[in-house]
Write a structure and sequence with these properties.
2 copies of one chain form a homodimer. With about 200 residues, chain A is α+β, with helices and mostly antiparallel strands. In chain A, about 20% of the residues lie in helices and about 35% in strands. Chain A has 4 helices and 8 strands, in the order αβββαββααβββ. The longest helix of chain A is centred in the middle third of the chain and has 13 residues. The first copy, chain A, is globular. The mean pLDDT of chain A is about 95. Chains A and B meet through β1, β2, β4, β5 and β8 of A and β1, β2, β4, β5 and β8 of B.
Chain lengths: ~200, ~200
């Protein structure tokens, strides 16, 4: 992908990230998926940047978390990203790609490795913790594992890519508010200014 | 419902609201639903308080918005509420009840009326705006309607109630993090401390 292939919503999103950068939580967004059975699920995730030469958003997750099952059965997702300082919301709808320790495609393996190497020691430590959402032991010694190697991802570590197909950008500032909807069709994007 | 019937997650949630009150956006949360066809949807909504004598969260929405169709076909929802100052997340899963101008149950009619009366003039004005997400006219005169009556809701105004069945409270502070999951079974709630 050349830089001319950046989707048109990348520029307003970069601007939002820049203008809200004083707030560390500006990289937190909410990712909705559908549970087996048809109930929605929704949780906060941390944006880990765009995958090189793509419009894919990167996240990390634990192989033992419930969202893995959800994603394997239904890869559809909508991320909702609200920027508190500039008062604007991006809704990014698309498909998720999961990268686990079993993934064999070379470029995906590399992305998972790079993400592991990029995160902090504290973030890496969480992948040594006991089974998420299992009943908690009063004794916390299960959380005392040694620091994992910073080069080779643990098996519990997964990467998650969101490939947007539609993006809805709502800006609450303005009289009235402003809303632009972007749609992907094949390799190209259209942008439509709509009522808020 | 007597005050002893407050669900056990109400107290930590009230505390979070109180401790984050300096940030007006502490009342913003993300509500996930499922679109007809099985795709998830996710958007920011404003918490409008608890309905009297209940554990139901109140929101408002426009009758012409896409979420109405979604909710009528599938009332399941999960709200994700992240508090940035205290670094804690509540995930509230349950069913939505929609209250429109056509709703006849007396207690629901009253809730919709009270919400209309409680919101600001600016919030009420939005319900006079032209069709949400329709192509926008360059001329903004369609947004210049007169202020609606503050007592009687416009037909476009709806109230939305979320009745939680499960609540997942994750606190990122603490070494390690703390997580409690609440489940409703009939009229009573159980609380389980689990691994983060």
């Amino acid at each position: 992908m050349s830089s001319s292939d950046l989707a048109p919503w990348r520029s307003p999103l970069s601007r939002a990230l820049h203008r809200n950068r004083a707030q560390p939580f500006c990289r937190f967004l909410q990712l909705a998926t559908v549970r087996p059975g048809g109930m929605p699920a929704n949780r906060t995730v941390v944006f880990r940047g765009f995958r090189a030469a793509s419009n894919q958003l990167m996240f990390i997750c634990d192989r033992r978390s419930e969202k893995l099952d959800q994603i394997q059965q239904n890869p559809n997702a909508e991320a909702c990203w609200y920027f508190t300082k500039t008062r604007e919301q991006f809704r990014l709808r698309g498909q998720l790609t999961l990268i686990t320790a079993d993934t064999s495609a070379t470029d995906l393996v590399k992305t998972r490795q790079q993400l592991w190497q990029k995160i902090s020691d504290n973030a890496r430590l969480q992948f040594t913790w006991p089974q998420p959402k299992a009943a908690r032991n009063q004794d916390n010694s299960a959380f005392d594992a040694a620091l994992p190697d910073s080069q080779t991802p643990l098996d519990t570590f997964c990467a998650l890519l969101l490939t947007p197909e539609a993006v809805d950008h709502l800006s609450l500032r303005g009289e009235p508010q402003n809303r632009i909807i972007y749609h992907r069709s094949q390799a190209s994007w259209t942008a439509t200014t709509v009522n808020p």
